[in-house]
Write a structure and sequence with these properties.
Strand content: 15-25%
CATH class: Alpha Beta
Shape: globular
Largest sheet: 8 strands, mixed
CATH superfamily: NAD(P)-binding Rossmann-like Domain
Number of helices: 8
Structural class: alpha/beta
Number of domains: 1
Helix content: 25-40%
Strand order of the largest sheet: 3-2-1-4-5-8-9-10
Oligomer: single chain
Number of strands: 10
């Protein structure tokens, strides 16, 4: 499987390492593939290729979007929606707004979500919201005393969600499918809850688990 990782921050690097670890052919997309920062990724994430957003989008049979929200629309314009048409796109972003001396807040909510916005920008792609509710250190092979945590996903295409579930299983997650992409309206606020708990306790290695009878 060829996969495009669109974004080279801590989330992009964590997921790229995870994909390389399960045998995927990975290209990380960046704004300037010739910059020193981009070239350094070859040592930071062994086994990946580096390209522009456009090159990575063309390369991948599947893509994962992990940019800061402020740069997401421009990154997708550089990638070109045509290059992602018909493909599964995992949306790991959160529409966060940052202000000094305050926890982050959501730029979208209640009647819309970042996931839905990404699906509108990529209207010919199969967008699945995933990976947004946990920190990058736990995205691949999370280990907790009570067993594997749950990753909630949302998307409109059943087959796309099945493919994402396969990845999550390989990464050590249980998957909970909550329905269509509009489910991102409740998944993105879970990020705020995750952050608030971290700020209150000073602990940042936590995840969610749904208890069932």
């Amino acid at each position: 499987m060829k996969i495009a990782v669109l974004g080279t921050g801590v989330v992009g690097k964590a997921l790229a390492r995870g994909f390389v670890g399960i045998g995927y052919d990975v290209m990380m997309g960046t704004r300037d593939a010739k910059s020193e920062k981009a070239i350094a990724l070859l040592n930071e994430v062994p086994g990946v290729k580096i390209g522009s957003f456009n090159e990575a989008a063309k390369f991948g049979e599947m893509a994962v979007l992990c940019t800061l929200w402020s740069g997401t629309e421009s990154a997708l314009k550089m990638a070109d929606a045509k290059n992602l048409a018909g493909k599964v796109v995992i949306d790991a972003t959160n529409p966060l707004v940052f202000a000094p001396n305050a926890p982050p807040s959501l730029a979208l909510g209640h009647t819309d979500s970042g996931g839905e916005q990404v699906q509108r920008w990529l209207h010919e792609s199969k967008v699945v919201k995933a990976f947004n509710i946990v920190g990058n250190t736990e995205m691949v092979k999370p280990e907790f005393p009570c067993g594997p945590p749950d990753m909630f996903i949302a998307g409109n295409d059943v087959d796309a969600k099945a493919k994402v579930t396969e990845i999550l299983t390989a990464f050590g997650w249980n998957t909970v499918d909550i329905g269509g992409i509009e489910g991102a309206r409740v998944l993105e606020p879970l990020t705020i809850l995750w952050v608030l708990y971290g700020m209150h306790t000073g602990a940042w290695r936590h995840a969610y688990k749904m208890l069932k009878k």
